[in-house]
Amino acid sequence: MGGKSELRVDRAKNRLYIKLSGFFRGADVEPAMRDLEAAVRDLRPGFDTVTDLSSFVPGSPGAGDALTRAGELLRAKGRRRGVRITGGLITGLMQFQRLLKGVFSDEHTRFAKSLREADEILDSWPEEG
Questions:
Q1: CB neighbours (10 Å) of residue 18?
Q2: Using one digit for the tens of pLDDT, what is the confidence trace for 21-42?
Q3: Could you count the other beta carbons within 10 Å of the beta carbon of residue 41?
Q4: Distance CA 16, CA 36 (A)
Q5: Domain span holding position 28
């Protein structure tokens, strides 16, 4: 079984929740990108993301390119800050960080162990002045 992405938009908080699981292959990429493009349409610029990588396994080279494209799409649509839920699979996080290093700055990215902690981080993150 290939990789899977689950997306949820919270319009009130202007927040996108992304859960990536499994090993992404080339065939998994385009459906996930279409879903991401549709979800981003429901958000205002300045939105935040919570990306759950706790079940993500490093994917194929084509999937890696898609992760970079997805990050660039989020940045272009106005992503402000993000929290990554790491779980126990550090290799997935390492690939994710490597591919998105030039897309998002470290100052706008935090890490959490759970969805609850990720929401708490975003809810208490000081506004930039």
A1: 22
A2: 887 777 777 888 899 999 999 9
A3: 8
A4: 9
A5: 4-120
Residue with tokens 């205002």: 44
Name the nearest CA neighbour of 32 among 1, 9, 61, 66.
Answer: 66
**Band of pLDDT at residue 61, cut at 50, 70 and 90:** low
Residues with Cβ < 8 Å from 128, sequence gap 6 or more?
none
CATH code assigned at 29: 3.30.750.24
Domain total for the chain? 1
pLDDT at position 95 over 90: no
pLDDT at 82 exceeding the cut of 60: yes
Instruction: Please tell me the predicted confidence (pLDDT) of residue 94.
Output: 58
Confirm whether 70 is domain-assigned: yes
Length of the chain: 129
Helical spans, DSSP H, in 44-125: 61-76, 90-100, 115-124
The answer to whether residue 58 is domain-embedded is yes
Residue 72 lies in a domain: yes
Query: Which phi and psi angles does 104 have, rounded to 5°?
Result: -120, 140
- Tell whether the model's pLDDT for residue 8 goes beyond 80: yes
Q: Is residue 82 part of a domain?
A: yes
